[in-house]
Amino acid sequence: MNETTWKTAITEINPNEVRLRGYRIDELMGEITFAQSIFLALKGELPPAGVAKMLDAMLVSSIDHGATPPSTIAARTAVSTGAPLNAALAAGVLSINRYHGAAIHDCMGVLEECLRLFNETGVSMDIAARELLADYQNKKKRVAGFGHRIHTSDPRTAKLFSLAEELGVADEGVAMIKALRKAFLDSGKNLPINVDGAIAALLIDLQMPRELANAFFIMARVPGLVAHIYEEQTRESPMRRIHPSDHVYDGPDPRDLTQMIRQL
Amino acid sequence: MNETTWKTAITEINPNEVRLRGYRIDELMGEITFAQSIFLALKGELPPAGVAKMLDAMLVSSIDHGATPPSTIAARTAVSTGAPLNAALAAGVLSINRYHGAAIHDCMGVLEECLRLFNETGVSMDIAARELLADYQNKKKRVAGFGHRIHTSDPRTAKLFSLAEELGVADEGVAMIKALRKAFLDSGKNLPINVDGAIAALLIDLQMPRELANAFFIMARVPGLVAHIYEEQTRESPMRRIHPSDHVYDGPDPRDLTQMIRQL
Amino acid sequence: MNETTWKTAITEINPNEVRLRGYRIDELMGEITFAQSIFLALKGELPPAGVAKMLDAMLVSSIDHGATPPSTIAARTAVSTGAPLNAALAAGVLSINRYHGAAIHDCMGVLEECLRLFNETGVSMDIAARELLADYQNKKKRVAGFGHRIHTSDPRTAKLFSLAEELGVADEGVAMIKALRKAFLDSGKNLPINVDGAIAALLIDLQMPRELANAFFIMARVPGLVAHIYEEQTRESPMRRIHPSDHVYDGPDPRDLTQMIRQL
Amino acid sequence: MNETTWKTAITEINPNEVRLRGYRIDELMGEITFAQSIFLALKGELPPAGVAKMLDAMLVSSIDHGATPPSTIAARTAVSTGAPLNAALAAGVLSINRYHGAAIHDCMGVLEECLRLFNETGVSMDIAARELLADYQNKKKRVAGFGHRIHTSDPRTAKLFSLAEELGVADEGVAMIKALRKAFLDSGKNLPINVDGAIAALLIDLQMPRELANAFFIMARVPGLVAHIYEEQTRESPMRRIHPSDHVYDGPDPRDLTQMIRQL
Question: Would you give the DSSP letter of residue D262?
């Protein structure tokens, strides 16, 4: 082991043996979902019971949000010039930043600030939330995780919270964002918790480090971007001018999941 | 609808309603895994029974392969200079190309060629495989999906095939790659089917278009790259010289999945 | 020197001495232009007399083409989400591919094909051009370097060719593309040589390898992309919807260079 | 002009007319260098007399720094997997960040801070420099633009400063960094001004906004990265393990510029 030898704790490779965080990857296959393996890769441990289903729901919730997000436009613009799929995907991923996708990260920061107040001063969650909100409003700072350009009551948020209760995953993060929602209402603002806010609360309850918030959104969105890239390649002419909003959906009509589920 | 109006069949966005390929995304959440939602996003339909578990196993198999793949080195090199996570990830994704990650795509091409021969001429799979192999050997072309730098018997391959049998997913793709393996043996070469070859065979049996082969590898590897980027950020000094192979694994000792599984 | 020692012929670094292709970089500074140093870096030798001015003119010709090229749209889309400048630039560079920017590369291929015909068979340039054109028209292949979406007579082309004559740089490449232009006219098509065609002809006469054609366009366009990224950062709100064509120019009014030049 | 119409002040495109910041681009060609056109694109005006040569020298100084910078390693790693040139270049550009390439930006910040002190309080440059240095040393902050891993007396710095004097470009920026150098010496530290520090001082004297500091380094380095990408493509096998430092230079022997210059 010379001076340049460095260390990694993620994956161990030996002839005919690949171990992720200590587990044989061929033993993991068939036993855990991709979502669970993501948690294992990032956190070093398999997720506790219930968390697997929660992770799947969180990742599904953010897999795509249609044709208007700038990451989608950038990926389609790149592939429209003939970029290979990975380059178009990179252009999309490079367009996920402070103003697009970062709400999870920012909202985790808000919640962590509230929880510090709650844990250190002994005030109730409601009071911690109210104080933070007042402080942000004084400083004219936006509270990330609330409000949405399109949705007044985001159905993804409601579902994430009901699953979190059902699976026993909801903890201080979820409680605190609900306290913030109440503080908004008390201040006369009926601002909904958006999907990013819900995911932020859940990532806190899953003890995921905030540095990985953006990664969580990106991992969820990558397959959606791939779908857009492939659709652009197969449906459109190269070098078209891609209008950033003037499009229509012409996919399958609304359909009911109930019947399908029986067969899965 | 003016001249610039364009169409997309992936996601429909209405106030308080997000539909992926026709299904309400809040109904999908909690019912399907992230892997199933990837299939739905890309193929437009939910996967048939059995396929969900197969997809999870395929994605888990490729989530990471340690510190030496060039995509890992490129991502670590970028983040070591202070790149934000998405930029480092993009550098990694940009390093997945013809010589790294493309074996799935190339092997699908080989299998499709064999299957055309099989379906169009009526010869047996064994003969189709033997003819293709002879042709490739004459032209000194490499048959993608066979052999591995490190593994002589890739445990991921065996597991993918046993799961495919068990789940009823294995079809012509799997049969054909096994015929090719036999043809290699008959020609005196004991070349193992590698994990990329196994995934290629399965993607054919899942009727995934070959254009998405590389995407499949990338989607699987993104979380692994994120783990390496985060480890580099949290364990290493900026601007270190990253040796491309001289490293050691210092993560959890080998551990057994059996006990854990009971709790998941 | 162990087994991993590798070699580079570009730059030699010693304490207090940096040599590019053998020349001290501090001696090059003040003596050669950036354009000459680009030639030196890529070709390994300083350009012959006259070529410096030609290179500058070629790079200036392609520095920007307004707001509609997809590389500009992609870079602006990325920076509009809060991407750092280098990430937005990468998104732009990733959008320079087969259908945008590659005409130089493709036209060099056409010219090299014509010149092989000319040099190997002894036919005149006019006949070589006519044969290639007929062949392309039979195969319904487009001849890169001719025609333009906007310009019927590209002023950049005329200037590049007049400079090339004046500087003694024009050789077989320029002669051959003019023969092709004539062949088009003879076939009844008044298709102008576009700026990419002119640059392709000149790169052949500068003996630049075709593999670097795309690089030449990218190197020229990088500063233009930087100007657009900076303008987006300083003039626009984040996350705006960037229409791909509906914009107006509001920069300096048309102005005459003659007076300025005296002072430079 | 509808609600989505947006504005740009960079380039005006009309049929058969391309104007950069008001000047016909075909008139600029042959009259100004690429470096001057970069200044025009970014600043909106042609550079004053003397500045053209200064810009060329600054860009030449940073065109390449051998095989070890992480941007070079990332670009070579990507292309080694078969990435197209633009994708490998993007991987390189994505590796230019806070710890690599950002010294120009950081040093401009230091100099601007000193100059504010100088201009607002009326103290001498020497005192402003000494106060800032003391403050940074108290806070254990590094002063960017001083010191170098390899060079104790960077020949590029000396040349940039002598050219700046000769061309009449040197102003407060250059004077202030020299005051800082003196303050270091007085505090017992013989730290050389590095090339990034020299460029930072000159960008201040050219009134280039600090937001473009990183862009300046990137624009200069892009051709160097292209040279490395092309060398990797043409000299090396795919998928080699690229040692981050163990390489040797085997290009042209040291050679003298004097004889060449006569012919340029």
Answer: T
